[in-house]
Specification:
- It is a single chain.
- By secondary structure, this protein is mainly alpha-helical.
- It is built from 6 helices and no strands.
- The longest helix is centred in the first third of the chain and has 40 residues.
- It starts with 8 loop residues before the first helix and ends in a 17-residue tail after the last helix.
Length: 176
């Protein structure tokens, strides 16, 4: 018994046309989008290259040019530069030194510095509220601990249902 090939001339021509159609579609796509794909590939290749920073050389301090003494003229008053305005208060040197002691993995260094800074009140860390959310907690003072005044049995009686889990609800158990 021989194997029947279900390929006749009609089917062969069909597959030939399909193959040529797919080939033409691929060529059209490449002609339309190929340049964009190449540009993206080049951009990704450039992004993968390590960033090389220029070498910094120490700059010699600029000496002011000697002024001629022959013509006494009225020199304009030097304009004072405005100090850099920061929204945070300066950090104490002892706390800043915590940054350089150890590593964060060992709960030292930055980890310890941030935890120490977190203990300060926001009023001591910042000069003024930066965002509107700061105003909610600004100058509230230390938190007040409130004691829970009740007996243990009162809490137990009011917490548990009186008639079990699967029983019908008692109107006294419902909080409306």
């Amino acid at each position: 018994m021989s194997r029947q090939l279900n390929m006749d001339t009609l089917r062969q021509n069909f597959w030939k046309e399909e193959y040529l159609r797919e080939k033409m579609l691929r060529c059209e796509w490449y002609r339309k989008y190929g340049s964009m794909v190449k540009a993206k590939q080049k951009a990704k290749a450039v992004a993968r290259l390590p960033l090389k920073l220029p070498a910094l050389y120490p700059q010699a301090p600029l000496l002011p040019a000697p002024a001629p003494k022959a013509a006494p003229s009225r020199a304009p008053s030097p304009v004072q530069e405005a100090p850099i305005q920061s929204e945070m208060c300066p950090v104490l040197p002892a706390i800043r030194a915590l940054l350089y002691e150890g590593i964060s993995h060992d709960s030292q260094g930055r980890h310890r510095y941030l935890n120490t800074r977190k203990l300060d009140l926001p009023e001591k860390r910042y000069l003024f509220p930066i965002t509107t959310n700061f105003t909610y907690g600004w100058q509230l003072g230390p938190p007040v601990k409130q004691e829970l005044v009740s007996c243990k049995m009162c809490r137990i009686d009011s917490f548990f249902r009186k008639n079990g889990v699967f029983a019908l609800l008692d109107p006294r158990d419902l909080a409306l």
